[in-house]
Design brief:
alpha+beta, Nuclear Transport Factor 2, Chain: A, 9 helices, 42% helix, 29% strand, globular
Length: 367
């Protein structure tokens, strides 16, 4: 795992400085209180300035001491809040990273099916010919899939630590010794239920070539997304609901038809958005991700038929600044031209303008 960031260290130092300033001001107030007591007893009749400051009155153009104390405390609060929030966020991030690693280890120990059944939550989905109930799929006597191994290279988690995403390279085959394995990326959505992380959605994208599992996630990558996210207080707005996320999901589908995939993702993606598409390397950042996304849709569609987006499920974190959606996007098979159909899995973040933006976009074609 990555070491604390320079920003974390700088913020911590600012908190310490603010605390020391606060202690110094407390000491000054104490001394002035003693002066006030002496003044009332007649022992030090010349400390009128001290008494005026203590009473919150201005003297000789200087602001009152009470005002200065309040300013010092108010200035320290943002630093303290930011530091505390970042510390909690990093802890949630580490907890999810640990859960994902345990999941990978259990898959290697007891096999894919048994491990999935240990971690899948109620209402979880996997993607076959569209989204299907994951527990029903893995409990089926007919279920049989290749084993796989993976490592995460990116992790994101909500401010309340109840929703998150992990993604990284994976190797698939009938066994670890398979001569001709498949490579891809495994994207997983996690939700914390009763204090434990559970899998709620899994989507796999297969790519040609070879991928290395020698990767490691960094909290620094997550911090870039957090810098774009809405303030925790503003995210609690009454009109910020799961329905507002669903509306953004549907608007994105319509925007693809109006503007094309590239412009649509530029409009609805974060500056640090990520896309994972079949047959293509991951793309990170608004320019790269939108370019790849547009090229992929242009190549797959080969038609002017509009895409119909069907939202099929999702969830909003308790902090209301992260959510996910999934469903299908397809052209009308009855119209002329090649048909196009894909499942989608989408992680959303509420941005600083309280608008839903795509943090991670994943597509899995429906054959």
């Amino acid at each position: 795992m990555s070491a604390p960031s320079t920003q974390s260290i700088r913020t911590g130092m600012m908190v310490l400085i603010a605390c020391r300033i606060s202690r110094l001001l407390d000491s000054m107030v104490g001394k002035l209180e003693n002066s006030a007591t002496l003044e009332r007893s007649g022992q030090r009749p010349h400390h009128n300035v001290a008494l005026q400051l203590l009473a919150g009155q201005s003297s000789r153009g200087f602001p009152p001491l009470g005002f200065l104390v309040r300013v010092a405390l108010l200035c320290s609060l943002p630093f303290a809040g930011s530091w505390s929030q970042e510390r909690s966020q990093n802890q949630y991030w580490l907890e999810l990273a640990s859960a994902d690693q345990t999941y990978a280890d259990r898959t290697a120990e007891i096999g894919r099916t048994a491990a999935f059944l240990e971690f899948l939550g109620e209402g979880s989905v996997v993607f076959r010919r569209g989204p299907v109930d994951a527990l029903d799929e893995y409990r089926s006597a007919e279920f049989q899939r290749d084993e796989f191994t993976w490592e995460s290279h990116y992790i994101d988690v909500s401010r309340d630590g109840d929703l998150g995403l992990t993604v990284g390279p994976t190797i698939m085959g009938p066994s670890e010794e398979a001569l001709d394995p498949l490579y891809g990326h495994l994207v997983s959505i996690w939700k914390k239920n009763d204090g434990s992380w559970q899998l709620m959605a899994d989507m796999l994208t297969v790519i040609p070539g070879v991928l290395s599992l020698q990767v490691e996630p960094s909290f620094d990558d997550t911090e870039l997304v957090l810098e774009e996210a809405a303030h925790p207080v503003l995210a609690q707005a009454e009109d910020n609901t799961l329905q507002s996320l669903i509306n953004a999901d549907n608007d994105f589908g319509r925007n693809i038809n109006f503007s094309g995939g590239q412009r649509a993702l530029l409009r609805y993606g974060l500056e640090n958005t990520r896309v994972y598409l079949p047959g293509m390397a991951p793309a990170v950042g608004a320019d790269a991700a939108s370019s790849v996304y547009g090229a992929y849709l242009d190549d797959q569609l080969r038609t002017t038929n509009p895409i119909n987006l069907t939202y099929m499920g999702g969830y909003l974190s308790s902090s209301k600044e992260m959510g996910y959606s999934y469903g299908t996007m397809a052209t009308n098979v009855e119209e002329a031209g090649p048909a196009f159909a894909t499942s989608y899995l989408r992680l959303w973040r509420l941005n600083a303008n309280n608008e839903w933006r795509i943090a991670v976009e994943v597509l899995n074609p429906i054959d």
